Amino acid sequence: MHLYHGVWVALVTPFKNNQVDEPAFQSLVQDLAGRGVRGFVPLGTTGESPTVSAEERRRIIKLCVEAAGDTSVAPGCGSNSTEHTIQMVREAAGLGASGAMVVVPYYNRPTQEGLLAHFKTVADSTDLPLMIYNIPSRTGTNMLPETIEKLADHPNIDGVKEASGNLDQVSDLCARVEGRVNVLSGDDGLTLPVLSVGGEGVVSTLANLEPEPLVELVDVFWKDNPMRALILHRRIAPLVKAMFLETNPAPIKCALWMAGKIQNELRLPLVAVKAETREKIAKAVREYHAAAATI
Hints:
By secondary structure, the chain is of the alpha/beta class. The protein has one domain (about 5-225): Aldolase class I (TIM Barrel, Alpha-Beta Barrel), CATH 3.20.20. The chain is about 45% helix and about 15% strand. It is built from 12 helices and 10 strands. It has helices at about 20-35, 55-70, 80-95, 110-125, 135-140, 145-150, 165-175, 190-195, 210-220, 225-240, 250-260, 275-295, and strands at about 5-10, 15, 20, 40, 70-75, 100-105, 130-135, 155-160, 180-185, 200-205. The strands form 2 sheets. It has an 8-stranded parallel sheet with strand order 5-4-1-10-9-8-7-6. Strands 2-3 form a two-stranded antiparallel ribbon. α1 (about 20-35) runs parallel beside α2 (about 55-70) and α10 runs antiparallel to α12 (about 275-295). The two termini are about 35 Å apart. About 50% of the residues are buried. The mean pLDDT is about 95.
C-alpha cells in the first residue's frame, strides 16, 4: 500500500508577531485531521519553509505529529544541498514523521543525471517513504518523467507531487511509473485532470480551508462517478483561482484569517495580499458557500 494517495494538506505556517503561532497551528491540524484528509505536508511551499529556522522546523514537525493523531505527516525536507536534505529527512524520522517530501534542488539547476544521483542518495539514506516534489516554476529545473522512472523501483521512493502544470508530462509520468510510484497533483485546479490520466490524489493548498470538496472529488472519481467529480471540480474552480491571485501562501492565509483561524501574517519577503485581492478572495469564498448550500 502506497502512503501517498488521496488528499494531503500543504499546511500553512501561522505566524503571530513574527513567531510561529503554535496554538493556531495545532488547532488547524486537529480540525483538518477529522475531515477526511490522508496526510499533512508541513514546511513546503505553502508553509514558507525558506523563512523557517532549523529549531522552528523541528518544533513544527513535532507539533504536527502530535496534533495529527493517526493522520500521516510528511514534512518538506528538500534543499539544494544533498547532505542537508539527508539531515532534514533524518530529523523528520526522529520526530515521528511518516514520510518526507523532497523538492527538486533549486538554484543549482542540476542536470537530469544530477537529479537522479541526488534522489537516489537521499532515498538510500533513509527508511522513510519519500515524495519527490517537482515544481519547476519555483526551482528552475524540471525533473523529467524518464528520470523519475529510473527511481520508480527504489523501495523508498513512494510518490511524486507533480506541479509542472504540464498535463502531457503528468500523463507520461503516470504511464511510466504506474503501480510503482503514486503521482499526486501539485496544483489544486488540476486535481481532476491529473486523476483522469492516472494520478492518485492531490497535495492541496485549498484543503487548509475547504478539504471536503477535494476529498469527495477524489473519492467519487475512484468510485466511477466522474460526472459528480466534474461538478465538484467546477464548483471549487473559482475558489482555487482566488487562492492563487497573488504568490502562495498569501491568499490562503488571508482566507484562513477571514475564517478566524490564523493571523494574516507572512514572513518577509512575502507580504499580505493587497486590499483589492482581499475583496476578491472574500467574494470567492461567499460565492462558493452560497453555491454549495444549493446542492
